[in-house]
């Protein structure tokens, strides 16, 4: 498993994303991860509508966030997402970095599993459609 699929987006936290301490509320980091994940999946043409159309749901079953430094209003940040596992599950690593300095502000990961939409059964191996989208031959 040496291939890594990576994508990054740039965003600036909005005023409504702040908590009473004037830093980005901790739950919004997950929303930023989701924006980067969707952009990443779009690069391989397997975003949520394509997942559904292929017959699979991909629920998040684990999500971790490590807050290193706070994000603040108006701070441009780069949100990096990388697919790092795909054999039995889909694991995506995330990093949020200050766009100007490159300093790491937050890191984390999400794990999703394939579920057959028709039977509602979880798969224990990657469905062939994801391997195809990743350009991997089984």
- The structure class reads alpha+beta
How many alpha or pi helices? 3
CATH superfamily: Hotdog Thioesterase
User: Unreliable runs, pLDDT <50, ≥5 residues?
Assistant: none
Helical amount among residues, as a percent range? 10-25%
Largest sheet: 5 strands, antiparallel
N/C terminus separation: 12 Å
Outline, from the CA principal axes? elongated
Domain count: the total is 1
Q: If classified by CATH, what would the architecture be?
A: Roll
Radius of gyration from CA coordinates? 16 Å
- The CATH class is identified as Alpha Beta
Mean pLDDT, all residues: 94
Word description of this protein:
The protein has 138 residues and is of the alpha+beta class. The protein has a single domain, classed as Roll (Thiol Ester Dehydrase, Chain A). It is built from three helices and seven strands; from the N terminus they run βααββββββα. It has a five-stranded antiparallel sheet with strand order 1-4-5-6-3, covered by helices on one side. The radius of gyration is 16 Å and the shape is elongated. Keywords: Hydrolase.
Characteristic key phrases:
alpha+beta; Thiol Ester Dehydrase, Chain A; single chain; 5-stranded antiparallel beta sheet; 7 strands; 22% helix; 3 helices; 138 residues
Topology:
Layout: E1 5-11, H1 26-43, H2 48-53, E2 56-57, E3 60-67, E4 77-85, E5 90-98, E6 104-112, E7 115-116, H3 128-134
Keywords: Hydrolase
Protein name: Acyl-CoA thioesterase
InterPro entries: 4-hydroxybenzoyl-CoA_TE, HotDog_dom_sf
């Amino acid at each position: 498993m040496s291939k890594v699929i990576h994508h990054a987006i740039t965003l600036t936290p909005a005023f409504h994303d702040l908590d009473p301490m004037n830093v980005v509320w901790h739950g919004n980091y997950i929303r930023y991860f989701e924006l980067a994940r969707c952009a990443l999946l779009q690069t391989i043409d397997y975003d949520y509508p394509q997942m559904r159309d292929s017959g699979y749901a991909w629920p998040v079953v684990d999500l971790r966030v490590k807050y290193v430094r706070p994000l603040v209003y108006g701070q441009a940040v780069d949100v990096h997402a990388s697919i790092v596992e795909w054999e039995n599950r889909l694991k995506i690593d995330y990093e949020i970095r200050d766009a100007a300095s490159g300093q790491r502000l937050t890191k984390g990961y999400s794990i999703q599993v394939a579920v057959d939409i028709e039977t509602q059964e979880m798969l224990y191996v990657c469905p062939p459609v994801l391997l195809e989208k990743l350009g991997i031959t089984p």
